[in-house]
Amino acid sequence: MNRAARGVARSRRGADTKKDAGVLVIGLGRFGSSIALTLDRLGQEVLAVEKNPQLVAQYSDRLPIVEADCTNPDALEQLGVRDYSVVIVGVGTALEASVLITGNLVDVGTPQIWAKAISAEHGRILQRIGVHHVVFPEFDAGNRVAHLVSGKLMDYIEVEDGFTIVKMRPPKETQGFTIEQSRVREKYGVTIIGVKSPGMDFVYADANTRISANDLIVVSGHSELLERFAARP
């Protein structure tokens, strides 16, 4: 660990020991750097950790960052890892490093561990170790784009276990009718949760919300049911 890392570790040990230090992001590849920069832009307390000195230099003027190898449990301890309630492991392509880092985090009892996986097998290993949230960036992006280019969907977010939220143009059978009149939930098993009319603010939908041809609607439900609903003319 470098001098900067030791300095951060000393300051964290001397601070409040409650787990409120923000988010620790380990690994500054495309995935990790995107998360760290976005968190920083949103005003979230974030500390990035990277063992490659070139990447450390690249991001040193954009993020709070230290150079350290987190496959070493002593390095994590010196960083004050116990102060963080959320740690994101952006290391993916180096499978051994990914497993060692997440194993170290599990050993110290990190409350929330998010980790990148590059394959289903990698994801299963991380889950067995004890990772709370496994992320498949390439798969998730490909899945989302496939849904967007194959139909009328304008945005697609799969939350968990098939539950999905989409933004789309309303099918003709809903246009000019209230949600109660169109009976979308009864016929298709999905729920219209919001409507955006041109020039108007987004509104949460209720039974009396009327949908027009130029509206955008936000709909939730199981992905298969949403796909069938979106396929309606």
Report on the architecture of this protein:
- The model is unreliable at about 1-20 (pLDDT under 50).
- With about 230 residues, the chain is an alpha/beta fold.
- The protein folds into two domains: about 5-135, Rossmann fold (3-Layer(aba) Sandwich); about 140-230, Alpha-Beta Plaits (2-Layer Sandwich).
- It is built from ten helices and eleven strands.
- It has helices at about 5-15, 30-40, 55-60, 75-80, 95-105, 120-130, 135-150, 180, 185-190, 225-230; strands spanning about 25, 45-50, 65, 85-90, 110-115, 135, 155-160, 165-170, 190-195, 205, 215-220.
- It is elongated and about 65 Å long.
Distance between the termini: 60 Å
Mean pLDDT: 85
Element-by-element helix/strand order: HEHEHEHEHEHEHEEHHEEEH
Tell me the total number of β-strands: 11
Structural class: alpha/beta
Biggest sheet: strands side by side, in what order?
Answer: 3-2-1-4-5-6
> CATH class of the largest domain, anyone?
Alpha Beta
Count of structural domains: 2
Q: Main β-sheet: number of strands, strand sense, barrel status?
A: 6 strands, parallel
What gross morphology would you assign?
A: elongated
Query: Can you count the helices?
Result: 10
Strand content: 15-25%
Low-confidence residue ranges: 1-18
Tell me the radius of gyration.
Answer: 22 Å
Work out the helicity level.
25-40%
Second rung of CATH, namely the architecture of the largest domain? 3-Layer(aba) Sandwich
> Could you state the CATH homologous superfamily of the largest domain?
NAD(P)-binding Rossmann-like Domain
CATH topology of the largest domain: Rossmann fold
